[in-house]
Amino acid sequence: MTPAGPKVLEYNVRFGDPETQRMMLLLAEETDLAAVLLACTDGKLDSVTLAVRPGYACNVIIAAGGYPGAYESGDTITIGELPRDVHVFHAGTKLVDGDLKTAGGRVVSVAALGDSLEQAVEAAYRGVDAVSFKHMYYRRDIARR
């Protein structure tokens, strides 16, 4: 807040942004995202219903070692069985001869739903445990305050 009112420093709305990825999990199944986006472009957002499911969402970014500086790429990624309501969004990955490899600094985002913030955070970290690659790095303090 400033004396002149609120000022926005950054606003993340791209589907590749982790802030957006987790929010997509909160859209109710009856929400037609294509209709919502089309209504936005036509200036008719008031003509569509944007339904959300109750609960909370959290995501944890798994990055390549060294990110945001120089980082490794080309390492094999394995993703085991994910808990229910946990999703992996690929960012810096590529398929090479049928094997999933690291190909960027932010490799994947593991997002989860829960009835409480604590449950969503716990589920996201259980999802992180299902992902493995050499020199992977992630923060352990997401939503811990």
TrEMBL record:
Designated name of the protein: Glycinamide ribonucleotide synthetase
Any single GO BP term: purine nucleotide biosynthetic process
One MF annotation (Gene Ontology) recorded for this entry: ATP binding
Domain of life: Eukaryota
Boundaries of every Phosphoribosylglycinamide synthetase C-domain domain copy: 56-145
Species of origin: Tolypocladium paradoxum
UniProt keyword Protein biosynthesis, yes or no: no
Keyword annotations from UniProtKB, A to Z: ATP-binding, Ligase, Nucleotide-binding, Purine biosynthesis
